[in-house]
Amino acid sequence: MSNSRLEEIHRIRLDKLAKLRDRGIDPYPPKSSFSLISIAAVRDAQGKTLAVAGRIWRWREHGNVIFADLRDSSGQIQLLFQKRNLEKNFDLLKLFDVGDFLAVQGEVIKTSAGEITVDVAKFELLSKSLRPLPDDWHGLKNVEERYRKRYLDLLLNPDTRHRFNVRTVVFKETRHYLDKLGFKEVETPVFHPLYGGANARPFTTHMQALDTDFYLRIAFELYLKRLVAGGYDKVYEIGRDFRNEGIDHSHNPEFTMIEWYEAYADYHRVMDVTEGLFKHLAAKIFDKTQIQVGDKTVEIGHAWPRIAMSDLLAQKLDLDVEKLDAQALTEFCRTHKLELVWGETKGQLIFEIFDKLISKDLIEPTWVIDYPADVSPLSKPHRTKSGWTERFEGYIGGREICDGWSELTDPQVQRQRFEIDTKIARKDKSEAQQVDEDFLEAMEYGMPPMGGIGIGMDRLVMFFTNTWSLKEVILFPTLRPENK
Asked: Is 393 annotated as a binding residue?
């Protein structure tokens, strides 16, 4: 619709608004005077006189009779306005438009065409719409406009509403599942004096009250582990993280994470709990454990195999990484045209080869376990394999869905890892872990053995809706501001 046409419609609706006020009608009352029930409930109440409210969706005038469609969050119903029933109030209807919010009271009938309808005896305007809704047949075709005007996207696209309904179930049932296992939900600070718990570039801000620079958190990990040291044996947090990095189909600068930590547990226990969570969510959302991932149907109800990264490299690429040094692995990467920043350690090269050449082919649910220490600064050293850690990632449909490990609890080793991480070559040094003295002090008071995991809740919703664009599962994704 052209801007001139939109401006004309806006002007006409403003004129209707003024006429309503001239007639002593409040176009934005605080509530309806009727006792309202949902449209879904009204549809099952033929013969009764009831009241409903919602948004006018269609409007069809036929002389002394007007038909309209009314929608609320539970459904849609037809309205019938007859001049002989409404007398002098019938002429008010010419001041109403598609998009207005309306409350009506009347008998629920079935028309000769078989349509459940409210034969309106009384009505009242609840909110006057000043802009026309996009045509629900053509909808919003511009993808970025759908993200900027999510409220219209939700109104016009049932698939969008379904995705966010699933998101609600994912959050609710994740909490329910962990709560039943005895975990306690907590909140930790968003402002961190040091950033840590992940390798990512932070956002910085200045707090005027303390005249101090802070970082928006990139992870909850170091604070949740402090709570385990303080006596919380099972703890989790669901909240926002912020990473000052790229924006694409799988990354947004602010996103929702869950992390949980369990005392006296190792990475095998964490995998057990996580696998149970995925099966629980599948049962709640789909009432089955078959999941559609891309164009593949994947069964997640069985026990997921656990395979060491070094074994996968040997099986898939005939690569014995235990025997090869960094130079040989670098040459392998060059031969297979893998992008490097040069200066990578042996562990980084091992992970790069796995990530680029193997991970995408892990279709069936798979736990990849035992990661190089160089890429796992917070993981406990492997109990039997030098140079490796007790870390895992879960893969389904060729996509990494979660990341966890047996947590490092030795403060001296943790200090060494922090210091090494700040020196490892990276595209951006600001991604490295910081040496967090306060966290190290908490470790020195003693931390029990523990396992932990972090899962992107947005990516979890992507997984359970088979929607592989992060912006489709975040209500208001980060966008460049429009030039006005």
From this structure: yes
